[in-house]
Every structure is written in C-alpha cells, then in structure tokens.
Amino acid sequence: METSELEKSKAHITVEIIEYVPNSVVIKTILKKSTGNITVMSFDSGEGLTEKTSPFDTFAQIIEGNAEIVIDGASIFLQIGQSIIIPAHKSNHIKPNGRFKMISTVIKSGYE
C-alpha cells in the first residue's frame, strides 16, 4: 500500500492519481491524520475487498466505473458519481463488478 500523501497546495485530477494494475487492488493515501484518512483505490476486474467491520463510519464515492458494496448482507450498486456512508460496526465488503475507482474517507472522531 502506498503511504506517501499527495502534494499539498497543488491541484490534482483525482481519477488520474491511481492506475489499474492487473489482478490487483491498488490503494494510495491522499491524506492521513490521527483523526482519519482519505484514500483512492483502483480495483481491476474480478478484484474486491474481503468482508470487514470498521469502528468508524466510511464515506465511499465511485469516481470511475461502478461497484457493488454489501453492508450487513444487503447489496448496494453504485455508479460513477454516487456515494454511500458505510456505518460503523456494520459488516461490509466490496464485490467485484468490473474495473472501478473509488475514494474512501474515514473520520475517526466522535467514537471515543
């Protein structure tokens, strides 16, 4: 996983920050702080993330392609430009649905 943040005070085209890698999920950190982080991810066809539960809400926004996000067993299909808040303490995973890119934002405050 890439851990260097993006250069500050410089404009970026978010969808171009990360490329697809065959048979892989690629994650790049945009911003990482003790109170949360923002990452951009690319998923090659057939690639997803395994089921997990986070102690924090996660805001997921599709910036290229489309994706299926499963929250507590319910499938939600998102297209480019759509987003969803994955609630804290709910099981969730991202199922393969072709190539896509997304931004993930986690805010850690408020759950102490």
Q: Helix count, per DSSP?
A: 0
CATH architecture annotation of the domain at 14-20 and 38-107: Sandwich
Compute the number of strand runs: 8
Q: Segments where pLDDT lies below 50 for 5+ residues?
A: none
**What order do the helices and strands follow?**
EEEEEEEE
- The radius of gyration over CA amounts to 14 Å
What would you note in describing this structure?
With 112 residues, this protein is an all-beta fold. It has a domain at 14-20 and 38-107: Sandwich (Jelly Rolls). It is 0% helix and 51% strand. The chain contains no helices and eight strands. A hairpin with a 2-residue loop joins strand 4 and strand 5 (74-79). The two termini are 27 Å apart.
Summarize this structure as a short list of keywords or feature phrases.
single chain; 112 residues; mainly beta; Jelly Rolls; eight-stranded antiparallel sheet; 8 strands; 0% helix
Q: Could you write a compact summary of the structure shown?
A:
With 112 residues, the chain is mainly β.
SSE order and pairing:
Elements lengths: L24 E9 L2 E8 L5 E4 L5 E14 L2 E6 L3 E4 L5 E4 L4 E8 L5
Antiparallel strand pairs: 1-2, 2-8, 3-7, 4-5, 4-6, 4-7, 4-8
